Amino acid sequence: MTAAQADIEELSIKAHTLTEALPYIKRFWGKTVVIKYGGNAVSDEPKSLDTFVEDVVLLNFVGIRVVVVHGGGPQIDALLSRLGHASSFVRGLRVTDAETLESVKMVLLGQMNPLLVSRINLHGALGVGVSGADGSMVLCRAISEEHGYVGKVVRVDPSLLENLLQMGRIPVVASIGVDEEAQLYNVNADLVASELAGALKAEKLVFLTNVEGIRGDASDPSTLIRQMKADELKEMLQDNSISGGMIPKANSALLAIERGVASVHLLDGRLPHALLLEVFTDHGIGTMLYA
Amino acid sequence: MTAAQADIEELSIKAHTLTEALPYIKRFWGKTVVIKYGGNAVSDEPKSLDTFVEDVVLLNFVGIRVVVVHGGGPQIDALLSRLGHASSFVRGLRVTDAETLESVKMVLLGQMNPLLVSRINLHGALGVGVSGADGSMVLCRAISEEHGYVGKVVRVDPSLLENLLQMGRIPVVASIGVDEEAQLYNVNADLVASELAGALKAEKLVFLTNVEGIRGDASDPSTLIRQMKADELKEMLQDNSISGGMIPKANSALLAIERGVASVHLLDGRLPHALLLEVFTDHGIGTMLYA
Amino acid sequence: MTAAQADIEELSIKAHTLTEALPYIKRFWGKTVVIKYGGNAVSDEPKSLDTFVEDVVLLNFVGIRVVVVHGGGPQIDALLSRLGHASSFVRGLRVTDAETLESVKMVLLGQMNPLLVSRINLHGALGVGVSGADGSMVLCRAISEEHGYVGKVVRVDPSLLENLLQMGRIPVVASIGVDEEAQLYNVNADLVASELAGALKAEKLVFLTNVEGIRGDASDPSTLIRQMKADELKEMLQDNSISGGMIPKANSALLAIERGVASVHLLDGRLPHALLLEVFTDHGIGTMLYA
Amino acid sequence: MTAAQADIEELSIKAHTLTEALPYIKRFWGKTVVIKYGGNAVSDEPKSLDTFVEDVVLLNFVGIRVVVVHGGGPQIDALLSRLGHASSFVRGLRVTDAETLESVKMVLLGQMNPLLVSRINLHGALGVGVSGADGSMVLCRAISEEHGYVGKVVRVDPSLLENLLQMGRIPVVASIGVDEEAQLYNVNADLVASELAGALKAEKLVFLTNVEGIRGDASDPSTLIRQMKADELKEMLQDNSISGGMIPKANSALLAIERGVASVHLLDGRLPHALLLEVFTDHGIGTMLYA
Amino acid sequence: MTAAQADIEELSIKAHTLTEALPYIKRFWGKTVVIKYGGNAVSDEPKSLDTFVEDVVLLNFVGIRVVVVHGGGPQIDALLSRLGHASSFVRGLRVTDAETLESVKMVLLGQMNPLLVSRINLHGALGVGVSGADGSMVLCRAISEEHGYVGKVVRVDPSLLENLLQMGRIPVVASIGVDEEAQLYNVNADLVASELAGALKAEKLVFLTNVEGIRGDASDPSTLIRQMKADELKEMLQDNSISGGMIPKANSALLAIERGVASVHLLDGRLPHALLLEVFTDHGIGTMLYA
Amino acid sequence: MTAAQADIEELSIKAHTLTEALPYIKRFWGKTVVIKYGGNAVSDEPKSLDTFVEDVVLLNFVGIRVVVVHGGGPQIDALLSRLGHASSFVRGLRVTDAETLESVKMVLLGQMNPLLVSRINLHGALGVGVSGADGSMVLCRAISEEHGYVGKVVRVDPSLLENLLQMGRIPVVASIGVDEEAQLYNVNADLVASELAGALKAEKLVFLTNVEGIRGDASDPSTLIRQMKADELKEMLQDNSISGGMIPKANSALLAIERGVASVHLLDGRLPHALLLEVFTDHGIGTMLYA
Fold first, then answer.
1. CATH of the domain at F90
2. Which parts of the sequence bind substrate (chains A, B, C, D, E, F) (predicted)?
């Protein structure tokens, strides 16, 4: 076998890999997929951003309508600490006073959002950054008096996203909301992703997190659940079989199912190309939830 | 005359005022107007934001395609000082190192842009915030090595703005640019406004500043020039009759004329409803420049 | 205060007046308003035509879809008398023989309609005159044998008006109908306006007449009713509290409400800018009827 | 041969006749044909209106964009005489004072136009009557001071006709013009037809008159010219070989050729289905003029 | 009467014939008509193809959406015999082995389809040949094991035809189906026509055959039934009053009625212009079936 | 490493392979690629059809507008021999009498075309088979009297292909042409592909053949030319460095370049996924020709 032949053979294998994706491309062509990308993903594994962006762009080019929703927890912590502003927490939620809100806005809109958009645009003029205030997309009110400017979603208007998707763009949404008096709010990004996925009648909602998925026994990696019904997850929540940071994520996932999203996926975003693997193979990465 | 009659009469006068705007509405219906709104305008006269927003929304409702471009100089200074980061200037331009750029992005995208968008949206889901990185709209490269991340506009792609305008939105543009390696840049907002006005074939470009306009004699308010040709302004620049902060503004205005914008207006944005007066009356507020 | 400053101040007040209309513009943007303009309005107060036309054109430019319907009673009387053709009336309706019908057509189509259209077009190529025969828009049959060519509306086809509105035109409709044998009819303009408003799903139907509105006590101007429910008007009709020329007008208004029009307004068209005041202020001019 | 067979045979011949029109239908499908229909045609031969209307509707259904332009000379004479208003003529043109103009408008817009429209609409909601004032379609100025309100065409705006044609309607145009001060004018219908045909880039302009066409020798019917170049007609005009009422018609025809219309046809409209024969056969009816 | 006058008179009669078609053109304008054209029609009466094609093209030009479906029985027999491949029949259906299927495909797609398409295109670039495999239009499965590749229609997807009709084309459909494993099938053309007519919500389905229509008494031509309800035909089938080759045709016709087609026509395609006569006259050619 | 981990790792590699195609997908998104698929490809290596079809469908799903053109030489030989009809050749071209033409049509339209279409449609309702007669797409005349029905392309009308591509279909074109008298012709498929690629302003034309590409020395595989300019190929043709079946292929390739196609590729279609490798890698398979 000559060198050239070896090359050709290797290329043929690669070409074959491309065609293996055909059934998945067909199945999701023209469908909407909402992806929640966590701030952890960026900070824990800087290089993973590039493979994530490649995945997003590839999904777009093969005809999937992709919406990215992001938060930025660790980055907000960093800025607050730099500004010497201490945070307090009530029932697991950061109390958001006016100054904290400024930092949240500056991080999400001024750091995370342009970072994602500009990286996506290395592959063409695709990414457009928006927040829930743009086009009054995410209407909020305060979740409680004591939490300050932490918002609870009252109504979402997906028309701006629909328009951007129709133009062939990839909207990148920062989890900021707005009320009817033009006050901005800090909103949990998982909830924003669920609400938008519902309003867009998305086929899939994918949470890229820093855990593998839901485990039958939280402490035992071998008990990772590949697929489960929404009702089963509800039971696990009632049984307290779900704990810690997974609780709000599970509730967001259930909300999306309730809003009519066909399947919700919880994946470890640190795994290279986790998104692509989940959409383009039958092999379960993480946990898939369905109605 | 009864009270009710007096009311009716007053109302009739108001109705008459509305119809006086008819010839202007007809003239600009369907045309594009780009407005540069300075950071000073917000900080000097907080209430002026509300009347500015009313003007912008009214222009939109009477059929004008409005684009707002904003900077945020004073607010950037405030954040840098709060973060204890000193700025140095070279030939009148702020040297923008990585940390300064972070502050620029956080202020423009995280503070100024959502402020303008959310205020506009008090009047309906109209405003959509974008930066020059969205849709790769403002392509830049470094203006010089010593200035760091200060960008020089290489090319603008107005397609995202065209799409937003077509959907009936009011785009609010933060003066951030991006290069081909996804590096963001701080770009002078006047230049961004001029380039976008040119690319959008705008009818008018309006600079809302904190001076009345161009004066024949900079120290004498009574020498305000109402209308002038671009060539006259060029001569004044060569004669050094223009000085200080007006020099870059004059250059931006000339650039817009060169790019094909029909008229450029320099107004004092602190005057209530300055924008509306300029568009809807024949009475000259500030200085109008034309080819 | 210098003269220039005084000017500026006056202009600012005018600009403020413009922005006061914003909430109304927003509320009616894209909505349809049908206006019945009576022949009396032209003959009683010739100058009022100009302010009426300004109002119509302004409504159009701020995004309202305007349809004008007109009759021409006094002008028809004048032509008939000039041609020496006496009219007889049966139960309040003019008996319309072939010769009378010729006069009706000549006045409505040959005098009133081009007058309104050409005045509107002083503000741009907006007005397009049509009659109920154009595009078979108003299908009629004879109201009774003894009334001759007085038509009763059988069905309206609003597609021609929809098309003209979509092109940005202001249709001006003469109250002529047609039957299935191509016979034309004289139709009451109030009824035509009500039927068209219903078929166009109009937001508002405005009758510009020569009375102020409906009074609780017909002889006492101070009893003008600002707002009333359709049911209250029905009761007044049954109680005979409504009399004379107001009876058919009241019935037309009730018909429009029945056809689904949100509100019907009876105004004194002789008041300058009555139309604009009714649409653009909360202050009640005349009487507003709603379901 | 049974009776039924005879029927079938007759029907087959009819079907064959239909298919004979195929080459003409193909040739003119999607093309615009402007038809000038004279007032004489209606008054001389009342029944001819029905066959004319059938022809117009058939052309429309086989995919030709048809515009009808009409005058109403004899009918105007009748009304003026009835109103006891004498006409004077200067250089062959009726002096049109304000009162004469009123009669012209009443006849064209109030009698002729709705007559044509309502007859066309016996075949569906196709006809829409317009005048040159609608949509400011025919802009005029006075032809001379002494002629009063006789208009000379300054500019035509075919956009309203284009829109109506696009909706599948048949516009019926009364030869009324308007100037920039909203003054209406009496305009020669042949000229209006020529100008509109030019502006619409019509394939054909057909004058339906009460003469057979242009004759080599005006007094000898056997010298009817079937086809001629525009230049030949110009020479005949210079030679005074054309006389009387044919002179203005010839000039209008030449104007249309100059405006880019491919062919102009002068036909005797009293011949049943003259229009259809001209468009759908190769046999020359009347005279065809081409560049 | 001169020769020219005689000509003109003859032409006038022809023109009148054209206008007689007006009511039918109006009734069917924009409607869909599916025509089953049998292989017999071509072989029995070669010249009839030209008049058939003229009819099809004329229907298209007067605004009817025409779809032609064809089989090719006699031509298939000829090819099979030439290739020395004998056919066997089970319950009236040709057993279709792989080799027979090849011949069916070669005749329908390689002979009949391009013949029809190219003849239609003598009148413009109108005809586009397709089979049930194109765009997966006719999905089949085997009708029984013993019949081999004889298909039974499982589902039709009319989107390709809708698209072609929208572009103004005349689709010519060969009666080939396909299953989900890409196996092609021989499908009865009458059934394909009925299923497509149903899916396209056709106004009419016309079977051009070599018999006159349905007779009350199969042996007596004078008992031809002009119009009948679907229920009456069902009864005749149950009574065995229908026999031979008419049975499957009757069943296809009933299927179309069931699928919502307004009327089904059985005509003798050998009669010149039979199609046009059926669509454009009230005189019954053949038998019309309705719900 | 656990089994699951091994799986994940393998999947990650596959995912990475997918993203490697991104730059190529971006470059060709929305572009048109015409592919000539030879009859040899099917007969020599039956399984290659499946991988070819996968490649075509994948290109379509990633946004490339794909047109497949095919011939069927070997299959035509087979049918002719089966029908006992000998072929003669004149100057390398098969003399095509009426009977030969029938066989050509039957093979191309009845065998090859539905085979390709139905295989493509295993991946969705994408493929639509057409010939040059459909929509009068490929207009021909006889190449010479002695060659009979061998066609020479006179003009191509790509509108049908444009329409099909716009609907998202994959047109599959059989190399049949038609003249203005509806006579069909046998046309060289390479020429049809070149002409269509030119008319569609294709980015690429790919010839899938049974040779590797063009060699500097025809007898030495190691002299395969990876890239060459059109002018170099012309020189080789003049030098007689190109011989045999490669001559007409080289001429077709040059024709496409002349018609404005950016690059023409000659590949060995027997190599699995040759098409995908050529479009999606920088590694040269075969020979690429450019202007």
1. 3.40.1160.10
2. 72-73, 94, 186
Known catalytic membership, residue A73: yes
The rounded distance, in Å, linking the Cα atoms of D273 and D285 is 11
Q: Rounded to an integer, what distance in angstroms lies between the CA atom of residue E193 and that of residue E191? A: 5
Mean pLDDT score of chain C: 90
Determine, for residues F133 and E117 on separate chains, whether the beta-carbon distance falls below 8 Å: yes
3-state secondary structure of C151: strand
Residue ranges in chain A whose pLDDT is less than 70: 1-6, 41-46, 282-284
Q: What is the pLDDT of residues F103-161, one digit of tens each?
A: 999 999 999 999 999 999 999 999 999 999 999 999 999 999 999 999 999 999 999 99
Q: How far is B53 from chain C (nearest CA, A)?
A: 10
Q: Report the predicted TM-score, pTM, of the whole model to 2 decimal places.
A: 0.91
CA nearest to B237, candidates B262, B218, B259: B218
- CB neighbour list of residue A251: distance below 8 Å, 6 or more residues apart: A237
Contact across the interface for A22 and F272, Cβ inside 8 Å: no
Mutation for A interface: F49, F58, F279, most A CBs within 10 A: F58
Among B65, B54, B151, B156, which Cα is nearest to B101's?
A: B151
Q: How far apart are alpha carbons C50 and C56 in whole angstroms?
A: 10
Whether C125 is covered by a domain: the verdict is yes
Chains F and B touch (3+ CB pairs under 8 A): no
Q: Measure CA C124 to chain center.
A: 21
Region of poorest pLDDT, from E139-143, E278-282, F111-115: E278-282
Nearest-by-Cβ selection for D106 from C106, C163, C181: C106
At E112 the pLDDT is: 95
Which residues in chain E touch residue F111, judged by CB atoms under 8 angstroms apart? 102, 105-106, 110
Q: Does the annotation flag E72 for ligand binding?
A: yes
Q: Are D264 and D205 in contact (CB under 8 A)?
A: yes
Please tell me the distance in Å from C194's CA to the nearest CA on chain D.
21
Question: How far apart, in whole angstroms, are the C-alpha atoms of residue D211 and residue F132?
Answer: 51
Q: Please give the annotated binding residues of C for substrate, written as ranges.
A: 72-73, 94, 186
Number of domains in chain C: 1
Q: Is the ipTM beyond the 0.85 threshold?
A: yes
Decide if F122 contacts F28 (C-beta within 8 A). no
- What range does the domain containing A67 cover? 30-283
- The question of whether D217 is a catalytic residue gets the answer no
Is residue F13 one of the residues assigned to a domain?
no
What is the residue whose two structure tokens read 């005045």?
A: C119
CB proximity list for B230: less than 8 A, separation 6 or greater: B254, B257, B258, B289, B290, B291
| H-assigned helices in B62-199 | 73-82, 98-107, 113-120, 159-166, 189-199
d(CA E105, nearest CA chain D) in Å:
33
Check if the beta carbon of residue C71 is closer than 8 Å to that of residue C248.
no
Q: Give which of A136, E4, D258 is closest to B123, Cα–Cα.
A: A136
Q: Which of E10, E14, E27, E28 to mutate to test the interface with D (most CBs of D within 10 A)?
A: E14
Nearest chain E CA: its distance from D258 CA (Å): 31
Q: How many CA atoms lie within 13 A of C155 on its CB side?
A: 6
* Band of residue C222 on the pLDDT scale cut at 50, 70, 90: confident
Known active-site residue F36? yes
Give per-residue burial for F38-59: e unless 16+ CB within 10 Å, then b: bbbbbbebeebbebbbbbbbbb
Angle in degrees, 0-180, between the axes of helices A113-120 and A48-61, rounded to the nearest 10: 60
Residue F116 lies inside a defined structural domain of this protein: yes
Q: What tokens were used for E277?
A: 């006569």
CA distance F62 to F27: 11
Interchain proximity E58–D19, CB inside 8 Å: yes
Nearest chain F residue to E116 by CA distance is F182
For residue D291, being part of any structural domain is answered with: no
Alpha-carbon distance of A119 to A185, in angstroms, equals 26
